[in-house]
Amino acid sequence: MSRPHLSFIDETPRSCEFDDDYYSPDDGLTESTYVFIEGGDVINRMQALQAGETLIIGELGLGTALNLALILQAWSEHGPAGARCHVITIEKHPLSISQLRAASARWTSLSREFETIHQRWPSPIPGCHRRPDLIDGLTVDFWWEDVSDALGDLESYGSRWIDVWFLDGFTPSRNEAMWKAEVLRDVANLSRDSANVATFTASGEVRRSLERIGFRVSKRSGFGRKRECLHGIFELSRASNDEHTAPARPTAWDQPSYIQEPKSCLVLGAGLAGSHLARRLAERNCQVTVLERGTIGSGGSTQPQGVIYTRPSHKHGKLADFSLTAYEFSVDHHQRKFREGSLKKGIDGELTGYLQLASDDVLERLATAFNDEDSPLKVVTREAASSIAGIELTQGAQHYPDSGWLHPRAICTELLDHPNIAVIEGLGDTTLRQGDGDQWLAIASTGDGIATGDTAVVTTAWEAVEDARLEWLPLQPIRGQTTLLPSQGALKDLKCTVCHAGYTPPAKGNVHCIGATYGLNETSTEERAADHAINIQQLRSQVPSLDSAVSSESHTGQAAVRCATADYLPIAGPVPNKAEFMTTYEGLRHDRKRLINKKQPNMKGLYVLTGLGSRGLTSAPLLSEILISQMTDSPPPVTRYLSQAVSPARFLKRRLVKGEA
Ligand SMILES: Cc1cc2nc3c(=O)[nH]c(=O)nc-3n(C[C@H](O)[C@H](O)[C@H](O)COP(=O)(O)OP(=O)(O)OC[C@H]3O[C@@H](n4cnc5c(N)ncnc54)[C@H](O)[C@@H]3O)c2cc1C
Ligand SMILES: C[S@@+](CC[C@H](N)C(=O)[O-])C[C@H]1O[C@@H](n2cnc3c(N)ncnc32)[C@H](O)[C@@H]1O
Fold it and tell me: pTM for this structure?
């Protein structure tokens, strides 16, 4: 994304592109408090929240995050216990961290809030970057997009989410794009009844546009040199139903027609997918029962060490975009867990970075695409990579300084340790049956009914297809074996994980878990000497400086089964009713772009989260977040394009489009 060009006049940042100030040169902090926090009635709305309720604030133009810092401050002082605040803020030209630091340095009364914002400021990758619990109970979605694209994306769900709007996009005469009729129409379509709107401008045109779409707008005295500004209330009964201005929404084949916020949920499988999902549900006060055949983290999530890794590309594409978005979300999540002390460094993992060795031409392409100072990856020379790793390397690399290795089972255990979660282990193959009154029933291998829930989620990796309602998912098991190496010789010097075709992390205790082999369509988990030989040979050839550190004695390790999909993207979403889906969207066979005004016919209360492939540590946190937003009809953490890319229904839609049965 392009960075803005800023000039500072008496400490007030000014945009060179728009030739306008980010806020009043007289006193930006007092202006923002007056125009937005007071004009949007934010404190009263926060104080009126009951436990379990969420206040959602939408901001057009995040800029220097001064308004955001004021929201954080207000929430710390006035947010009631048990309630939540969610800020959705849109910005087309995000500041770099150094620009942000420069712009915010003068606001010493907000230094704590800005420190928190700086720490979790997203990299300049387009799309939505969610930051849960930026402060206790307050989540922020940073949408790095043009306002029309971001609002259009959010509006496409047809849900009214927003309680308060801050319209802060430079003076209308200098930035028409921010005040276009379509933008304001989307603002109205996303507003709950009685939503507040606040803006610094008093433009007659803006006032009339807001009135036309359903806001009752009043003028207030302006701040400083501005004579007046506007605020208002959205009245749903007055909202314009003008067909000519209504947006054409895409066919909602990915959106469930039946949704009911889960109060009790059955989660089948206690791997990374099930554990992340269970925790997020529990945090929303849902009573969760996790049903596990063996023990926690005993399936694919069984290795002592795995790496949070990603797969960037110099070009946009579903796989690369999802992989990078999920990577950043996972790194942010795990960094927070280590900071809070719920994960222990060196035992549960360590985020000392990773290097991905790569050829010069790959590195050259990535260096051009990821040349921003805040990019999640830096391209480094062989010499620099060797110095970062602490061992001699033979190639340049992509360096991901914020990532590292984790112990998957420890991650699952930490996630499942919550008062709203009950874990039942050792059940053998458990199945789900739809009981009376929309309840789901879990049946153990003994035939006994064990637990019920109004909702159920299948997170049983490649075995998800054992459930007849999911037999059509194109899942592939892939066996993988790791090898344990004692930390000796040059291995002892290793300071960060080195990835090649496989991976070698710094030691956990005195042992490195290196891996891993690929056995497509193999499901056996017996340990094989031949697989250890493959891992060792791979390490020796890719990182010759470790050759003498690898003993030639017999090795031990573990084999487990991954689960991949036909398109290598994971799966998270409602389970469609296959027969009804194929009938409802039959028209797509003839015209793939046809608009069919019907949401997905789905199995009531049934969801699936699987297909995490070789990247469960990377994708499970974000996939859980996507799924929860669908289960609860709350704002999505990613663009619609990415949530469709992981929807289970994509495989059925593809069949229709390709003319298959
Ligand atoms: C050798 C190897 C190395 C890996 N390295 C990495 C890495 O470095 N980085 C990374 O991000 N990922 C890595 N992965 C992949 C990662 O481990 C997976 O993506 C992740 O474990 C998938 O989690 P899951 O919860 O979907 O599946 P699983 O962990 O397999 O969990 C599914 C659970 O469901 C249970 N279950 C199945 N059927 C039933 C049933 N009928 N009733 C009850 N319970 C049932 C299973 O017992 C299991 O516990 C690696 C995988 C392997 C095998
Ligand atoms: C007045 S500033 C916002 C000030 C900000 N709220 C603060 O607290 O500092 C306006 C912001 O809108 C952004 N902007 C302008 N046009 C935009 C567009 N079309 N889409 C998204 N953001 C835009 C600008 O980059 C700028 O950061």
Answer: 0.97
